[in-house]
Amino acid sequence: MNQHTRFNLPLCLTVEEDAFFHSDEIIKRYIPEIIGQKTIVISEQFLIDIYREKIMDISADFGGAEIVAIGRASFDEAVAIAKKVCIEDIKVIIGIGGGRVLDTAKYAAHISKAVYICMPTSLSNDSLASPFSVLETEGNARKTIACKIPTAIIVDTNMIINAPIGQTLSGIGDTIAKHTALYDWKLSAAKTGTNVEDFAYALARMSYDSVYHCDEKDMTSRVFIRILSRALVMGGLAMEIAGSSRPCSGSEHLFAHAIEEYYPQIKISHGLAVAMGSIPACIFQGQTPEGLMQFFHTYGLDYNPRTYGITEEMFADMWEKARLVRKGRITILSEIPHDKGQLKEIYDRMVTGI
Length: 354
Prior knowledge:
51% of the residues lie in helices and 12% in strands. The chain contains 15 helices and eight strands.
């Protein structure tokens, strides 16, 4: 029995057209007791400028809620918001934005014990429903910190259709990475004599399967957006039930963290970095990567390291650094030697797409 037998689930997951314009009606249906409570809206300035009408509408629906623009997705920023929420007796935090905004708002709500409503403007990763926030600490360092999952998640399909396509691709990458993460979780459990939480495993697998085997290939269709939204939420719930990020994060995530920490000059989103990492991880695990490569090709997800300015030497070094970023986390990298010859072959294969 996993010691994390108590877990939270969102009271509401709504994925519909123009949901942001009806957010108060949706909340009234599911959590009527928070209507009329003092509320704050957290976003980023450029989003407030682009979506002024929608965000002002949401603010008005929640009693003229104050709108606050964050500067950085940092620990300090989240704590400053939590301090404001506690001092001013604010009861509800609404996060409107991408992963940076949502992680900051989620952690601020966790510290201040406010109700947290998550309203993503893009589907770039599974942080929208996960029990973790990734926040900047010092310099380029980021820390993954445990927190409470949202009370409500409202996805407006129109917002996602209009989001940059790269952000949707990033969300696809984060979902598909569960293929190698689940293998690493089983490996770790076997090594440490612990159990894999079956229900969390099944949810993460369903999250992966629903996108990998999706018949809809148009990323801007409402059908696909609904499937991807639910897949990302299922991934978050899998982590909540497992009490760790293991159902969704394995060696491919260590690779992405190594890029973030050691190569900040490389401009690649988290989801695309884990998608890229999932191909070598698959090979290290003795699984065949053809299915993943074909899938990425179908959706136009570019996994060629050269596209992002990653040289063969950097690629090999990233995998070496990946072994250092999460001490104590057992993955396939704990089992195999660092082999530059193999990494050169993998790099060449990813560059040529064969």
